[in-house]
Design a protein that fits this description.
mainly alpha; 3-stranded antiparallel β-sheet; two-stranded antiparallel ribbon; about 270 residues; 5 strands; globular
Length: about 270
């Protein structure tokens, strides 16, 4: 059942309905719901298992984001640009690589055996989503329970919500998230075998680690001249327009998340090929 592709109308209808529910509970913005419909349609068109994998990923991420929501929001209010209501850029940053790989699997499926070429594509896809999930788990748990994070760049304490910083709780959550999502991918038939299971988990951890490193050294930082504070917000919460401070201009959190999933996919693929 899990390996059977859903008919297009079923895939589209199921994805649109799920995205609508997510929009109604404010887990997605309206354009985030549209992007999620596209990702979900592609996944279900590959197999019911791939579609279920996306739903489980999103459900777990949403639950974690809702736990202690007010507390976390107050801790990162000075820094983080976006809310927990995911927009289209956030959906594509987290699920775009997964959707692209799954789509390629659909295209090449007639020319390859499920447990050879197509299996490797699906391992890379599952690892990409595991990387996004591991990063999300690390952020949500670390923000709520991790205490003062340490910057990998300065090796000193930084405000909660600072990209490129780690906590013990967040790091443990990263490993837990990657491992959990790897087992989910195996249980739903997206991947098969212990080697593929480990590849997804390793890819997930590698992608989340890459996200942290990119966040520490390359992600764009802005400066509020009024509050004299570093932030990721283009308009600080005080209402003041911020200016570029350091990092690569335009390399915001969404771009870093996209690169995180790309690293996860590449590492997962290389591991399964080894």
């Amino acid at each position: 059942m899990f390996l059977i592709p859903a008919p297009f109308l079923t895939a589209f209808g199921g994805s649109a309905f799920t995205a609508l529910l997510a929009w109604r509970v404010r887990a997605l913005s309206w354009n985030g719901a549209l992007a999620a419909t596209v990702v979900g349609t592609v996944a279900l068109s590959s197999s019911y298992g791939a579609g279920a994998y996306v739903i489980v990923w999103f459900a777990l991420a949403t639950v974690l984001s809702r736990v202690g929501k007010a507390t976390k929001a107050s801790r990162v209010a000075e820094i983080v640009e976006k809310s927990t209501q995911r927009d289209a850029w956030q959906v594509l940053a987290n699920g775009g690589v997964f959707a692209g790989l799954v789509l390629s699997r659909i295209i090449v499926a007639p020319q390859c055996d499920l447990f050879s070429g197509c299996e490797r594509i699906l391992v890379a896809a599952a690892a990409a989503l595991a990387a996004a999930g591991a990063d999300t788990w690390a952020t949500e748990v670390g923000t709520l329970f991790g205490g003062a994070p340490w910057s990998l760049r300065t090796l000193s304490h930084v405000p909660t919500g600072t990209s490129g910083a780690v906590t013990l709780g967040g790091t443990l959550a990263m490993f837990a998230g990657a491992s959990t999502l790897a087992f989910v991918a195996l249980a739903l038939g997206v991947v098969s075998g212990t080697h593929s299971l480990v590849a997804v988990a390793v890819g997930g951890c590698a992608g989340a680690l890459a996200d942290t490193l990119l966040g520490a050294w390359l992600q764009e930082r802005r400066w509020c001249p009024r509050c004299t504070t570093e932030t990721e917000q283009h308009t600080h919460r005080c209402g003041t327009a911020t200016v570029h401070h350091r990092g690569v201009s335009g390399l915001n959190n969404d771009v870093v998340n996209l690169l995180c999933t790309l690293v996860g996919a590449v590492v997962g693929l290389l591991f399964v090929l080894s």
